[in-house]
Structures are given as structure tokens and as C-alpha cells.
Design brief:
The protein is mainly beta and 177 residues long. It has one domain: Lipid/polyisoprenoid-binding, YceI-like (Lipocalin), CATH 2.40.128.110. It has 1 helix and 11 strands; from the N terminus they run ββββββαβββββ. The chain has an 8-stranded antiparallel β-barrel. The longest helix is centred in the middle third of the chain and has 8 residues. The chain starts with a strand and ends with a strand. InterPro entries: Lipid/polyisoprenoid-bd_YceI, TTHA0802/YceI-like_sf. This is Lipid/polyisoprenoid-binding YceI-like domain-containing protein. It holds the Pfam family YceI.
Length: 177
């Protein structure tokens, strides 16, 4: 019988980031500042690990107050109605040494859809206080319209103001409990 280990997120050393095209030619970056995540494992190799994540929608920041307010409005995330974004893994499979594919269900804007994230396992290390830490870099892409985030504005030159593809970029550090 195997023993389950829980790993808690270290929010001071983790980032939940995204990028989206603006006016078809530049990226706008943002992140969520309030989130929680855990991983359940049966070994330090993280084989078959179970990941879960919860983010506070109104903690979004892009460095621009007006844009952030628009993102929280019913045009986009509708944070008043949908205060959380969640992810629950359905699979974590090894591709190569240190490379995994994380699959799971992302709930955003009241809609749950499957997503796939490329995951790099950075390994394990002890910090100066004796805590065992694990590091992960996750990347992926989603189409915001799949979650009902449909607002846009046409440009006079053709094209649209906000791209549909959202690039996800997460740097996660977990502490063994």
C-alpha cells in the first residue's frame, strides 16, 4: 500500500500568468495574484500526481487599472458572478525525462472544458529551512471563446482588438507537507 503525500503551493515563489494578442500584433501579459494549489503524490517521482488549483478571479492584474476593471466586468470574466477559476487534473503522464503532459478540467466563467498543459518538472530541492520543494513550469493555449469570453471590437484596419488564443504560463513551487 502506498502512502499519499500532499504538496502545498508556495505562493511567494509561484506565478499564474497569461498572454493575449492586442490589436493583432502585440501581447498583453497578466497574472492572478491570489490562488491556491495542491498536488497529491504517491512518490517523489510525481508519477500519476493529482493537481488541483483555485484562483480568485478578481485578483487579475495586467498593470492597467482600466483594462483590469474591463476584464472583471460581464464583458469578460464577470467576476461578480464567477469569483473563482478552478482546475482539477485528470491525468499526469511522462513524455520524456522531466517532461510531462498534464490534462484536466478547467472551469472558467461557469464553463468546464478539458485542457492540456505541457509540464516541465524542475526537480526536488531542500530550501535553507529544511523544506522539500518541487518546481514545475507549465505552458499551454486555450481559446477564450470556448469559455464564453466572447467580447471583442473590430479594428478599422481589419482584424480585432483582442485575440482569441490565450497563452498560459505558470511557474509553480510546491512544499512537501
Amino acid at each position: 500500500m502506498s502512502t499519499k503525500t500532499t504538496w502545498a503551493i508556495d505562493p511567494a515563489h509561484s506565478e499564474i500568468g497569461f498572454k493575449v494578442k492586442h490589436m493583432m500584433f502585440t501581447n498583453v501579459s497578466g497574472n492572478f495574484t491570489q490562488f491556491d494549489a495542491t498536488v497529491e503524490t504517491e512518490s517523489d517521482s510525481f508519477d500519476n500526481a493529482k493537481f488541483s488549483f483555485k484562483g480568485v478571479t478578481d485578483s487579475i492584474t495586467t498593470g492597467n487599472k482600466d483594462r483590469d476593471a474591463h476584464l472583471l466586468s460581464p464583458d469578460f470574466f464577470d467576476a461578480g458572478t464567477f469569483p473563482e477559476i478552478t482546475f482539477t487534473s485528470t491525468g499526469f503522464s511522462k513524455i520524456n525525462e522531466g517532461e510531462f503532459e498534464l490534462t484536466g478540467d478547467l472551469t472558467l466563467h461557469g464553463i468546464t472544458k478539458p485542457v492540456q498543459l505541457n509540464t516541465e518538472f524542475g526537480g526536488l530541492a531542500k530550501d535553507p529551512w529544511g523544506n522539500t520543494k518541487a518546481g514545475f513550469s507549465l505552458t499551454g493555449k486555450i481559446n477564450r471563446k470556448d469559455w464564453g469570453l466572447n467580447w471583442n471590437s473590430a479594428l478599422e484596419t481589419g482584424g480585432v482588438l483582442v485575440g482569441e488564443e490565450i497563452k498560459l504560463n505558470f511557474e509553480l513551487q510546491f512544499i512537501k507537507q
